[in-house]
Amino acid sequence: MNTTATAPLSPAPDDEIEHVALDEDYVLTPAFVEKVVDAADDGDGMKLRSLLEDLHPADVADLMGFLTAEHRGVVTVWLPADLLAETLPELDDGIREEVLERVPHLTLAEALQELDSDDAAAVVEDLEDDQREKVLAAMPEVDRAAIESSLGYAEDSAGRLMQREVMAAPAFWNVGDTIDHIRKQGEELPELFFDIYVVDPVNRPVGGVAISQLLRAPRTTALTEIMDPVNEITVDQDQEEVAYIFEKYHLISAPVIDSAGRLVGQITVDDIVNIIQEENREDILRLAGVSDEDRGSSVPEIVRGRVPWLAINLGTAVLGASVISFFGATIQQIVALAVLMPIVSAIGGNAGTQALTVTVRALAMRELNSSNANRTFWRELAVGLANGLLLAPLIGLAAGFWSGDWRIGAVIASSMVLNLMVAASVGVLTPLTLSRLKFDPAVSSAVFVTATTDFFGFLIFLGLATLVLL
Amino acid sequence: MNTTATAPLSPAPDDEIEHVALDEDYVLTPAFVEKVVDAADDGDGMKLRSLLEDLHPADVADLMGFLTAEHRGVVTVWLPADLLAETLPELDDGIREEVLERVPHLTLAEALQELDSDDAAAVVEDLEDDQREKVLAAMPEVDRAAIESSLGYAEDSAGRLMQREVMAAPAFWNVGDTIDHIRKQGEELPELFFDIYVVDPVNRPVGGVAISQLLRAPRTTALTEIMDPVNEITVDQDQEEVAYIFEKYHLISAPVIDSAGRLVGQITVDDIVNIIQEENREDILRLAGVSDEDRGSSVPEIVRGRVPWLAINLGTAVLGASVISFFGATIQQIVALAVLMPIVSAIGGNAGTQALTVTVRALAMRELNSSNANRTFWRELAVGLANGLLLAPLIGLAAGFWSGDWRIGAVIASSMVLNLMVAASVGVLTPLTLSRLKFDPAVSSAVFVTATTDFFGFLIFLGLATLVLL
């Protein structure tokens, strides 16, 4: 939870041109970015600071993404320390690692104390081992303990995601007790909170009260009278599951409990929005065979993430080629087949990718499980058949006309219908099988699907042609 | 904003097998879905009702997605009226339309009064014209006016998304005034709210106070002392822009203003989460050439959404084939070329899709604009070259060895390097150009990219081969 989040710099009126950093949609203007670049090039630190100091941390992070590594270095030096602290959790991982290398460990230790425990832990996580030790050693005991406890939970777990600051109230309190407590203990509570968790004597949540409900109720009302059941998150739950629960039930915050059921923290929806975007990003990129990369990634890093998929694809393409080579004699007699065969495989690949993408998305949204897997399969097969029956006559006529041999038209038309049904089957079954085996259904599905449609596309078309035409 | 959202049915302990609808991750169990199907098949309405009545509306919506249209019909009849009302806003569009056709208009008119204005409007929007008139006529004037006003805003606009219920306070109030007002007027306020908007005498927001801050402050503190600047949303802003602002600044709620700057409603983050998922879904599906479809779509609906893309792809595949046909004489002399050419085009297509997907995602996240477009292009080109230099020797050696002609190896290796650079260029430039022309960069990009890499893959490979080998 970023506690300064409610006060970004609003877009300025038109007459204050000098300070217009954002356009009307709260996006950084290229003109502003250019101003920063110019100031960095001139080494004009005062100018840089005056440009940056009024920005919201999220906008500084955005700015960093638009700069080169060199310019980021200059900006990092001139950023006010408190703004730097609040910017760190907003940065892309790659950029954050790079920025962290330039910040002296004492500055960093001080900056981290400004952040909530979850944000501070997220930053410390990205430090190199030796820098991490130095930074933690320079922090007060209580902050260090909070960060170390957070890092004790698995990456991507609810424990890592939660903030330890939470507003809990014993079940015997009434509304007045609670409001008085908040007013007195305000400093120790999270800066922003949305629900009060009602706990039993051993600190297990028994319900939750939205603070708008608390405000509405008379002071003498018991908390237990106005509380609702809460969705408890356990510390070891995966962040993707947590996001699913928040999204499904429209939660604003939820209590996190340890294995004994005791309240140990809370997760708020603004962190969930980030997770949802992260997971979506992963799904989209994985479907395209791109491992994690971001704006800060260097060319070698990007190549390392992409070339393995291309290499696998090279292997499957060779497999497809071996099918063609098997029919070399047929092609030598009828060169038209070499011209037409990529059409069959291309349409198959596209239709397979359509079925695959729909299935991967349904799995990610938990809209697909054993209750409707069969029905989904048959529906996709019917779609494949229908697509085939619509498109095959077109290509059949065109190919027959072009080649002057109507049998070639018939061969390509029937191959296309068959390959579209192969595409539908493999498009559904690949992610379903991966998911059942507890693998990520998005990873490598696309390569496998297009490999299959290429393979069968060539095999069916050239096979039928050999049977019919020779 | 779904006001019952904080109280879903928790997963039950193991011994209450009869009522276990959810597994430990709050996902409906296939066993429960089967029970519902059995009860629907038996026409056992009492059993159905007992299974359904304790479910959270989000779980009923999930259940609907797992059922066939026929079973959905039976469930709709037996669903308690208030649960039906709260379930309607949660349903996929296709399923909602289907369910709405089965609900008598008086039941519906009554159900809609239970909902917040934004949810009610979302449901009414999906009604057929004649049913809509009947339903609105059967509602009290005040609810009808709210819904009609909401529907007066453009689809996907902030006006459509906002709820009209909002907590505003004049700038001269202090904390005590505000709390007393909330306690007195509680009924007229939104059931859940997170920020109080401070307004000037003509109802223009001048700031916002998080209610956790309100609770913390002494009763005599003026609101203007503790308020923060707010991010104002205008009624005609597109929901995608609204989602961007919420996400970037970690907002929980934001005031919506009309063209005169007056406060007319608020948008809360839980609605934003839905929008984000909707936009992500669209991006993923569009990249694969799938128009909008959901679990409720019939086979003809799905085919209508997918076949146009396949037809376009058929056209581009014919274009690629025409390149091959141009080199028919070369292929007739060296059949090995027909075997190898799909390898060059396949790797190009994959690399192009990688570059495309990364670019589309960066555009969607507003991480890419004229500040860094040039740099992104050159980076992708460098990645293309590096990928080519890594993979080309592999395929060159393999092809040379297999064909027994090292010149063929050299031709395929150099073609691959060139085509991977074509792929990188077209992968970046296609979405960038579409975006600059104000088109959705995801739509049709993939078809264009693979068409280009096929075309140039065949052209470069067969062209070089003709030059070198003949």
TrEMBL record, chains A, B:
<keyword id="KW-0472">Membrane</keyword>
<dbReference type="InterPro" id="IPR036739">
    <property type="entry name" value="SLC41_membr_dom_sf"/>
</dbReference>
<feature type="transmembrane region" description="Helical">
    <location>
        <begin position="381"/>
        <end position="402"/>
    </location>
</feature>
<protein>
    <recommendedName>
        <fullName>Magnesium transporter MgtE</fullName>
    </recommendedName>
</protein>
<feature type="transmembrane region" description="Helical">
    <location>
        <begin position="408"/>
        <end position="434"/>
    </location>
</feature>
<keyword id="KW-0129">CBS domain</keyword>
<keyword id="KW-1133">Transmembrane helix</keyword>
<keyword id="KW-1003">Cell membrane</keyword>
<dbReference type="GO" id="GO:0005886">
    <property type="term" value="C:plasma membrane"/>
</dbReference>
<dbReference type="InterPro" id="IPR000644">
    <property type="entry name" value="CBS_dom"/>
</dbReference>
<keyword id="KW-0812">Transmembrane</keyword>
<keyword id="KW-0460">Magnesium</keyword>
<comment type="similarity">
    <text>Belongs to the SLC41A transporter family.</text>
</comment>
<comment type="subunit">
    <text>Homodimer.</text>
</comment>
<keyword id="KW-0813">Transport</keyword>
<dbReference type="InterPro" id="IPR006669">
    <property type="entry name" value="MgtE_transporter"/>
</dbReference>
<dbReference type="Pfam" id="PF01769">
    <property type="entry name" value="MgtE"/>
</dbReference>
<dbReference type="GO" id="GO:0046872">
    <property type="term" value="F:metal ion binding"/>
</dbReference>
<dbReference type="GO" id="GO:0015095">
    <property type="term" value="F:magnesium ion transmembrane transporter activity"/>
</dbReference>
<feature type="transmembrane region" description="Helical">
    <location>
        <begin position="334"/>
        <end position="360"/>
    </location>
</feature>
<dbReference type="Pfam" id="PF03448">
    <property type="entry name" value="MgtE_N"/>
</dbReference>
<dbReference type="InterPro" id="IPR006667">
    <property type="entry name" value="SLC41_membr_dom"/>
</dbReference>
<feature type="transmembrane region" description="Helical">
    <location>
        <begin position="446"/>
        <end position="469"/>
    </location>
</feature>
<feature type="domain" description="CBS">
    <location>
        <begin position="226"/>
        <end position="282"/>
    </location>
</feature>
<feature type="transmembrane region" description="Helical">
    <location>
        <begin position="307"/>
        <end position="328"/>
    </location>
</feature>
<comment type="function">
    <text>Acts as a magnesium transporter.</text>
</comment>
<keyword id="KW-0479">Metal-binding</keyword>
<dbReference type="InterPro" id="IPR006668">
    <property type="entry name" value="Mg_transptr_MgtE_intracell_dom"/>
</dbReference>
<dbReference type="InterPro" id="IPR038076">
    <property type="entry name" value="MgtE_N_sf"/>
</dbReference>
<dbReference type="Pfam" id="PF00571">
    <property type="entry name" value="CBS"/>
</dbReference>
<dbReference type="InterPro" id="IPR046342">
    <property type="entry name" value="CBS_dom_sf"/>
</dbReference>
